[in-house]
Amino acid sequence: MSSNIELEGVDPEAATDQRQLFWLVFPPIMLPIFLAVIDSTIVTTALPAMAASFSAVQRISWVVIGYLVSNTIAAPVYGRLADMFGRRRLMQMAIGLFCAASVLCALSTSLPMLVMSRVVQGLGGGGLMTLSQALIGERVPRRERGHFQGYLAAVIVIASTVGPAAGGLLTEAFGWRSVFWVNLPVGFVAMVLVRRLPRASQRGSRASFDGLGLLWLVLWIVPLLLGLDQMQQLALARVPLIGGLLAVAFFSAIILVRHEWQIGVPLIPVRLLRDPSIWRANAMAGFSGASLTSLVTFLPIYLQVVGGASPGMAGYLMLPFTAGVGIGSIIAGRLISVTGRTALIPGISFLATFAAYVAAGVWVADLDRVELAWLIAAGGFFQGTAMPVAQITVQHLAGPRMLGAAAGSVQLTRSLGSALGVSIVGMVLFATLASRDSRVAAVFADMVEQGKSAMDHLPAAAQHAMQSQIIAGFRAAFFTISIFSASISLLAWTMPLRRA
């Protein structure tokens, strides 16, 4: 396998003028990144409206999880195919599939149809981040990559900031289906800009695609997430099903690793994971995805159900958090370019993130919705340092031959972490809701669909008890998310590669 890429007429290593390099590389990858990020945030503030439309609160997280499952599976596939056939071509295919699936999402008439459409959308979305990062690694000199990670972080700031507010406003004005229709004009412009990228010539053989590895990857991820979903319901009758699903996932994971280790051109570059810095960088990406996606999924629900915010107001309250994550990424990218230090930055910053999320869990009952939003935003600012460090570390160590597969592995672990994080936090939330009184989960579902008025028929004492139990559920959720942050800090402090 060789993917030594040479640009026709352009040598990135010789591009000493940063402005020239910026206009060559940045515009064509800007909108794919924007499209990927805004889709993950614009949908979250519409989730309660979707739940009300389909009367399926306890399964509404699968609108997020379904996307993440296919996104996780697709990420290494795009990375490997891009090494074989070229990243520009694969990016165009990914954008086209993403937009076509957005139409299916908007036309969905049931929750299963919406989830399946999101699965197809994830198959396209899995390439947007992976291929954008690989294009940077392919066409930008090593010492300039920190700057470009900062530029991308600026796009992430805009997309993350606009997403929740836009989702809330669109849902209030036009219904939840509109959050999918807006992908089409953005996707069209993205396709045009990607076509502007100079063509790349590729030398070397195109080894066969690792289809068996893809099969074992699916048999690992899907049963694992289905098993975690079943754990949300504390029912003894479900134990055999849960045990069977987790057993399939466990043995599939073992077979996947053995298979990928033995073949010459693996779908997942497990040999790279022998490097302690690379596997720690991938694990950081996974925990970062778990923390971030869990918050953008469940915090808007808390703000609307417990805080009494409208979808539009919930979107505005999410702005400090999403903007903070992006700003933190920008600052991290600039610091890496100036100092060359990588692991030190998230090692320190995620201690602050951990403290913020623990504080949110401790004081959630005493904070109003604005105070809680700003406390979570403080943690989000420091959380933004993980992904630039993970990408730069892996790109630095993987080298050009494995660049696409390495970028795909980071996106895979981030997507898998996101899916697992949402599943685990959802499991903790609903298990806590049902731990004392099985009626609480049903009341919570009614509140998501109808608002606080769903408890008006209950006596005052019962309302207070229900509200306390719902808050306890979210307290447990915040504590779970804080564990993800502590894990990132530990990984960063123990990473051997300190500079890139």
Give a concise summary.
The protein has 500 residues and is mostly helical. The chain has 18 helices and 2 strands.
Record the strand order, biggest sheet.
Answer: 1-2
SSE string: EHHHHHHHHEHHHHHHHHHH
**CATH fold name of the largest domain, please?**
Growth Hormone, Chain: A
Strand content: under 5%
Task: Please give the largest β-sheet.
Answer: 2 strands, antiparallel
CATH H level of the largest domain: which superfamily?
MFS general substrate transporter like domains
Radius of gyration (CA) equals: 22 Å
Give me the number of helical elements: 18
Report how far apart the termini are: 25 Å
Low-confidence stretches: 1-16
Q: Domains counted in the coordinates: how many? A: 2
Structural class: mainly alpha
Give the beta-strand count: 2
Mean pLDDT: 79
Can you tell me the CATH class of the largest domain? Mainly Alpha
Identify the overall geometry: globular
What's the CATH architecture of the largest domain? Up-down Bundle
Helix content: over 70%
